[in-house]
């Protein structure tokens, strides 16, 4: 089994990345930093005669990179109690890919994957991050992916998540879970 | 009291817009269609020495337009069980404005406003839209705004929300609430 | 199709009952006021050799009354942001009935029903009642029932819910939905 | 600082109790097993001329036992995606105590305490237990208590929670937190 990590953070070495590094260190992964790419918001053309139009951005190249993998890790800072807008735009575009003849079987391919979420926030993430977890559950349910686990970490200042002992332990456990799956 | 409407939809005359039109028809409002503007994702520079950098996009011009108003209506389709990525990027940027010397008192200015949410989705919005409502509550709590009401409507195909009688009635009630407030 | 209404309120003519009456007036229903019965808390004996023991209370008689019906309406005041403890004890006992040889096929019988929820609370029920709705969804999912609709009403003092125009309209709509189903 | 533990489970040595024991072992605590007491459901008399009536059960004796403590641990199995009906009935009765002249200052006394929650369930508690956590947050917010932490554990069969390594580690951390507070 192979792993792709989709990073939604906008700050290199931010807390969500740091925590994710602990999970995947020394494990081969495909790392995708969404901030390095141009991902346009979806333009909803589901009901237009011509259907969705090419956005001519980097979105498809990211889909091409994640599709071969069996496990997807969504790593995002908690901005305003949800995933980053960057990651949200990436997921919004799935609606387009679901109807894109260049990606036949997109849903069933996604449905064969397992998903993990790693999210770090600074304002009571263990409580105020819960709606985001529920949304990820709905997202994975829709696309048919198994939601195999998540970690909510607490951190605001650089590297602060490294003080969150429960999150660090959960990272170790998720790491073991990944190693068993590979 | 004056009203600004912030539209997060990407399809002109989409269901969330249609429902919003019923709420505000014949009421003077400042209408902001986020899809018509270039809003870059936030780059988190809170912990950098230099602080946030100008993004040179249209974001500040939108802030300039909403600040004079007393009531903000957030109108968004439900994409993947949350607000559109376009609207999320707009809100994410508030973190920058909160630290922007060009916008002194941003938080207290926002805190004097009332917020309404109008959201339409096609996959059981009355259940699966609830985490999004909880997130808006957290967002408004943080910034200090009163969350004065919301409508969740059901609709997928064009104009389908106009069949959702409870949503239409709630629109009438929200409209009355706005008229009383003006 | 026939309808049973399960009332969790402890005050006769409380707000949740009032709102429910608007939904079902002039429709034949089996009305079950849980407060009139002795319903003991479950004693979890799933893992005991002897299994669950008879509690010798009124619980089974209520199950006998709801099983023949096609539609169940759960009508409860929101106490402390959830259904009343009385109603919770009633639902907790389903775990016993699921293993009770006197009720073969309990799950599949329940799974053929449709469920509605009517709940009234006095502290921002449109927001703070949402976790309860999510729990009802999980409950109905587990037992296999369709969650056909819900109303959250606002009311604290006697009859106050009759001022909640959106709830009243939603009651009319739920009523129409029931009439179409009968 | 002193600690009271309120157990909502109905099975001696159930998973939620087991996990709680790990948190409090060798720490002096007042242990209250709700199943050993007769706690009647609330009868809502807020709007009656005569007010609430004595229920002549064991409820007040439990309030007497928790009031002297600084920290309250709510330990409950997750039944049907929420706290046990037994624990819910106990909390529902707070509405009566808030108006009981025999308990002047009940709210402010409760508001000076810290609350912890330990809950174990067998059906995806990390996801489906989240609405319950949100409800505890609302409960503690209302009464003014600090929500100092929670653990969600996974377990169905006896002692199964002892296989949930993240929950066990979180128990160790909560234990340390308690020791620092004493």
Automatic annotation (TrEMBL), chains A, B, C, D:
Q: List all membrane-crossing ranges.
A: none
| Keyword Cytoplasm in record | no
Select a single GO molecular function from the record's annotations and give it: oxidoreductase activity
Q: Which Gene3D superfamilies match?
A: 3.40.50.360
**SUPFAM superfamilies referenced in this protein's UniProt entry, alphabetically:** Flavoproteins
Q: Which UniProt keywords apply?
A: Flavoprotein, FMN
In its keyword annotation, does this UniProt entry include Cell inner membrane?
Answer: no
One Pfam family hit: FMN_red
- Known InterPro entries for this protein? Flavoprotein-like_sf, FMN_Rdtase-like_dom, ISF_SsuE-like
The NADPH-dependent FMN reductase-like domain sits at: 1-123
PANTHER family xrefs: NAD(P)H-DEPENDENT FMN-CONTAINING OXIDOREDUCTASE YWQN-RELATED
The protein's name in its UniProt record: Flavodoxin family protein
Species assigned in the record: Neobacillus thermocopriae
